[in-house]
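On clarity, I found the account of how folds are encoded harder to follow than it need be. Since the whole study asks how a given chain folds, the encoding of that fold should be made plain. The format is easy to grasp once an entry is in front of the reader. For illustration, here is how one protein appears when written out as sequence plus structure tokens.
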Amino acid sequence: MTTTATEAVRAAAHAAADKKAADITILDVSRQLVITDHFLICSGNTERQVKTIADEVDKRLREGFRLSPFRREGEREARWVLLDYVDFVVHIFHREERDYYDLERLWADAPSERFDEGFEDDDRAAAKAT
């Protein structure tokens, strides 16, 4: 994945965090899939929050990286919204759907990175420096 794509997936994680998404995880699926490199997975507590998270991720990536999702799925029900940016895919689940589909278990052999305060602080410091 290019540096810009890496920065974009992390920006998506920050956008989700700013809308109070829970359990933000980035999976590196580049060895298992040829169609994308990373999954960003997060969850919201309500359909409204899921939609709000999706809208914020979309807005940030459009404004900061001039990226638009190639495909956007699941907005009507807002139980599992998928934003496909080709190099990475953002999965925003209602918490009940996330427990049911359990993508982390399905892709358990993929390296994962939890969004935590450490990488949040590193990324925000880098963004402020530019």
Notes: The beta strands are 22-28, 38-44, 71-73, 80-84, 88-94, 112-114.
